[in-house]
């Protein structure tokens, strides 16, 4: 029986999230993540065969963590979904900054095929629930993300009152 890994995938991706939040996607290199995690670069290449695989794993883990709660909230109501976007981002500001860059910011066209397929499936899950309703998308995606982006870029924190504003905006956009 082998010994447990000293640098597991989540710890490496946590270091990558911190680098992305501080320096943008360009700051997430194999060498920088290895330094930040205190791991040899071989540990990264053991888990991520290329820099693009590392960037894909960073984006997908972040997206899927967000989407899990978002889908549950959206099934309850648009107001819950709008509130979730802001609350999750307030609780996870570094990961929210990652999402604000978008998958293209993390080199999505160059990702391994299986990562691009996973992204397509993740996006399809959301599209299936949202449909083509532009007013719903505005209420639960565009307005809450505008609130998140403004606060994170200006101060690095999101006030608790922002959740209420997002829910109120969703209710106003989707009356009855």
UniProtKB/TrEMBL annotation:
InterPro entries: Homeodomain-like_sf, HTH-type_TetR-like_transc_reg, HTH_TetR
DNA-binding region: 29-48
Keyword field: DNA-binding, Transcription, Transcription regulation
Signal peptide: none
GO molecular function: DNA-binding transcription factor activity; transcription cis-regulatory region binding
Pfam families (UniProt xref): TetR_N
Domain HTH tetR-type residues, every copy: 6-66
Record's keyword annotation contains Kinase: no
Protein name: AcrR family transcriptional regulator
Organism: Actinomadura namibiensis
